[in-house]
Structures are given as C-alpha cells and as structure tokens.
Amino acid sequence: MTGPAAAAPPCPSCQSPASGKYCSNCGAPLAGARCAACDTALTPGAKFCHRCGTPAGMTADARLATRGAERGFGSVLPWAVAAIALVALIALVAGQRFARSTPPATVASEVPATATQSGTAPVDISQMSPEERAERLYDRVMALNERGRADSVRFFAPMAMQAYAMLGRLNADQRYDLGRIAAVSGDARVAKAQSDSILASDPQHLLGLLLAADASRLRGDRVGENTYLRRFVIAEPSERTKQLPEYLQHVTEIDARLAQARSR
Fold first, then answer.
1. Which H or E element spans position 192?
2. What is the pLDDT of residues 209-249, one digit of tens each?
3. Cβ distance 54 to 35 under 8 Å?
4. Domain that holds residue 153
5. What is the domain-level CATH number for residue 249?
6. For residues 193 and 110, what is the distance between their CA atoms, to the nearest angstrom?
C-alpha cells in the first residue's frame, strides 16, 4: 500500500495549495516558471520579471501582441506630431496674410475723408476722369504725409501711383506728383525715374530739381541732394518768370523748399 499523497506547497502570494508553474488561484509564478519575454526564471510569487519587467504569467503570444501595439503607436506618433505642426504652421501663415491684407485702424479712420469739405456726402471717384482721380489721390497722400500718418500713406500710395500709371503719357506736373507720392512712401527708384524724365526735358525745372533732391536723400546720397538743392536755388529766379502751370500749382511747396534750401 502506498502512503497518502504529499500536500501541495502553498502559493507564496495567496497561500492556497498550488502546483505547476503558476498558482491556479491568483496566477502568481511558482518554482520553475520562466518569463515569456526573456526566459529568465521568475521568483516565486513575483508579479513582474525582475530582468525585463514583463508581467508574470503573460504568454509569449500576448507579449508579441503588446510589442506590436507599442511599435504601432511609436510609428504613428511622429506622424501625428508632424500633422499638428503642419496645421499650426498653416494657421500662422493664414493669420499673417490676413493681418497684412487688413488695413490698419488709422487707415480705416482716413477713408471717410473722401467726403466733401462742405458736407458729409462722400465723393464718388468712379464718376471722375482719370486725371481727377489721380489728383484726388495725390492730395490724399500728401495730406496724410503732412499729418504724419505713415501707415495710411503706405496704404494709399500704391493706389495713387497706379492711378498716374493709367494716365499714359505724363506731363511734368503729373510726373512730379507721381514722384512725390513715391518719395513720401519711400520708393526712391520711382522718384528718381520721374525726376530724370522731367530734367531730361528741362534741366532747370524747379520741380524736377526738388524731386531729384528727394530721391538722392532717400538713397542716402547727401552730396547729390545738396547739389540738386543748390541748382534749385540758382534756377529759381529765372524759372519763376516762366509762370509754368505746375509752378503755380505747387507755389506753396516751392516757397517752403526754397526757404529751407537757403537756410542750409
């Protein structure tokens, strides 16, 4: 006869009778259990492998599935970050373009100035001739410049310059107006081109000399600026006797610039 079977040793975790490699009650590893990931012998009762951290009792198939999920998340994460960055970049660029296309608040405050001086009815420039539209825009830019509205000048100057460009062949007065708009908006190239055209026809033309001085100043050419101003002062007496329409049109400006040039 055989004696009674030896009792199974208790589980080190739950103290229930256990046999095999894992406790049937709590799943804790028993003596002889090995890690499904690294094949290291597990400490009886441990919840995780002391070598790689894999949960005790995890099967090899489950471990492979977990690794696959980790790899999948790792491969998706960089693309997700890149997508978020791209959306942020698009939003930034769109915001900057919107800001550039929106007139400054000070510009908006100038728009009602198209109303007539005597009333509140705005002037419909679409009913004006091309010459009248150009002159009206010139007056607007000059008025804004005198008031120190640099942002408004930059807003209206391109429209005014385009209005003059649409006139076709320009006379000396119109060339001066176009050049002055360019000068106050900081466009030395256009200012110089118009002064060159005026002086090519009349080397002593007062407005051409003033515009040439402005263009030189914008380019940082102080010598050239002073040279043109000296020529302006010398030519002024004889040129005034010509009573050119553009001289009469800009008499206030000529007088002011003459006083400034003489005081230099």
1. helix 188-201
2. 999 999 999 999 999 999 999 999 999 999 999 999 999 99
3. yes
4. 126-262
5. 1.25.40.10
6. 29
Both 139 and 254 in one domain: the answer is yes
Q: State whether 39 and 136 are in the same domain.
A: no
Detail the DSSP E strand segments found in the chain: none
**C-alpha to C-alpha distance for 201 and 222, rounded to whole angstroms:** 24
20-29, pLDDT tens digit by residue?
Answer: 777 777 777 7
Give the pLDDT score at 108.
45
Question: Do both 149 and 57 map to the same domain?
Answer: no
Q: Cβ of 221: how many Cβ atoms within 10 Å? A: 16
Same domain, 30 and 134: no
Residue 151, number of CB atoms within 10 A of its CB: 14
Q: Residue 12's pLDDT is what? A: 75
**Residues, the chain, total?**
264
Do the domain assignments include residue 70? Answer: yes
Distance, CA of 238 to CA of 261 (rounded, Å) = 17
pTM, entire model: 0.55
As a whole number of angstroms, the distance between CA 173 and CA 194 comes to 10
**Helix runs in 60-149, H state only:** 60-101, 105-110, 130-146
Please indicate, yes or no, whether residues 154 and 239 belong to a single structural domain of this protein: yes
What gap in Å lies between CA 161 and CA 19, rounded to an integer?
96
Report the distance separating Cα 175 and Cα 188, nearest Å: 14
Q: Stretch 177-196: mean pLDDT, rounded?
A: 95
Of 132, 159, 130, 156, which Cα lies nearest the Cα of 145?
156
